[in-house]
Design goal:
40% of the residues lie in helices and 21% in strands. With 372 residues, it is of the alpha/beta class. The radius of gyration is 22 Å and the shape is globular. Its main location: cytoplasm.
Length: 372
């Protein structure tokens, strides 16, 4: 699967942009502020419905525009995705002319994985960052089975919280809401636990095959389910202290919505031991390990890979190794750089996969050839 055409209007500083990338490596150069990172962000929004840079959609709309619109064509599937969002309304998304109402539908059609300068947040950020990372992998590896589980779990949490906030619920009503919450929580817990084991295995194999990344073998990953693991979830919910907090706050206090991934280094929190640079490298590797998990499965579409300005932060040895690993995946890649000389020698690439080069200037993109 690859994107053959992208049209962008009113998105940050991009307007009236038409981009026809190649099916494999696409290197996008340009000065700071030229719009190259916005181009990658537009690709990400087209595939997920949200940005990896900001939480709200309004900053995405050009200051002089009322809305942004994105359009992309995928091959060989023939999918055509259109998206529009104004300052006042939700996204309007259509695929081949049919309205799409959920982000999971979009993600299944155009999976995207972004490697960014903020990947150290997998170590330093809060549990929500790691849950989002974990659930990206669970969804794409177990797409048919996990999608309904995620939807049922979200609905069960909302129903239970609504009942708790009302303050006037009978014991039987509470038991009914809790029963459904426990049922879907168990399903989600099983999916996450199995995926975490697979992810750690693929991550360590990735590191073991590289002298540059060998230090990453020491990283440990433990799944914390969102309650005291010495108890069942039902037991945790029944504890008097938990029930008292739920009555006071109207919010379910324990469960998969409070889950986390513990990143450990020799038994200690990795964020307390590793440098920021090491955390960035390992954050990138964890995302590549997610793609390895997908590559091991039959009839699975690998995600489009976005690499936003990594050459500015990684030394040549680590950058070369990242590109070598990405070269092993049969998928489309977009990379932004300030200039071509930031990337390793062309000999790194497979002979049939030499990158296509594009320059972004003042919100416009055009192809060019590197001089020999």
């Amino acid at each position: 699967m690859y994107l053959s055409l992208l049209k962008v209007s009113g998105f940050r500083n991009l307007d009236g942009l038409r981009f026809q990338p190649g099916p494999r490596f696409n290197c996008i150069s340009g000065d700071n502020g030229s719009g190259k990172s916005s181009l990658l962000e537009a690709l990400y929004v087209l595939g997920t419905g949200k940005s990896y840079r900001v939480a709200q959609h309004r900053p995405l709309i050009h200051i002089q525009a009322e809305r942004f619109s994105l359009y992309g064509e995928l091959q060989p599937s023939g999918y055509a995705i259109g998206m529009e969002r104004s300052r006042q309304s939700d996204s309007h998304i259509v695929v081949n002319g049919d309205r799409v109402h959920s982000a999971s539908q979009l993600a299944a059609i155009m999976p995207v994985q972004a490697l960014t300068l903020d990947d150290f947040q997998l170590f330093e950020g809060g549990p929500r960052v790691r849950r989002r990372f974990l659930d990206w992998g669970v969804f794409h590896v177990e797409q048919q089975g996990s999608g309904p589980v995620f939807r049922r779990f979200e609905r069960a949490v909302k129903q239970r919280n609504s009942g708790l906030k009302s303050g006037k619920i009978s014991a039987s009503e509470r038991q009914a809401w809790t029963h459904e919450f426990l049922r879907v929580s168990g399903q989600l817990h099983e999916l996450r636990t199995a995926y975490t084991e697979t992810l750690l295995k693929e991550f360590r194999q990735l590191c073991e095959r590289s002298d540059t990344l060998a230090f990453g073998r020491e990283l440990g990953i433990q799944y914390s389910p969102g309650w005291d693991s010495r108890l069942t979830l039902e037991e945790a919910l029944s504890r008097p202290g938990i029930q008292e907090r739920e009555r006071r706050t109207g919010i379910t206090q324990v469960g998969p919505h409070r889950a986390d991934l513990r990143m450990l280094w020799e038994g200690m929190p990795a964020r307390d031991v590793l440098s920021r640079g090491q955390m960035k490298v390992l954050g990138h590797c964890l995302k590549l390990a997610q793609i390895r998990c997908l590559a091991q499965r039959e009839n699975t579409t690998l995600p489009i890979i976005l690499m936003d300005d990594l050459a500015a932060e990684l030394d040549q040895a680590h950058l070369t190794e990242m590109l070598r690993l990405i070269d092993s995946f049969d998928t489309q890649v977009f990379m932004t750089v300030l200039a071509a000389d930031q990337l390793p020698a062309p000999g790194l690439w497979s002979a049939h996969d030499d990158p296509r080069w594009f320059a972004v200037e003042a919100g416009r993109v055009h192809p060019y050839r590197l001089q020999e």
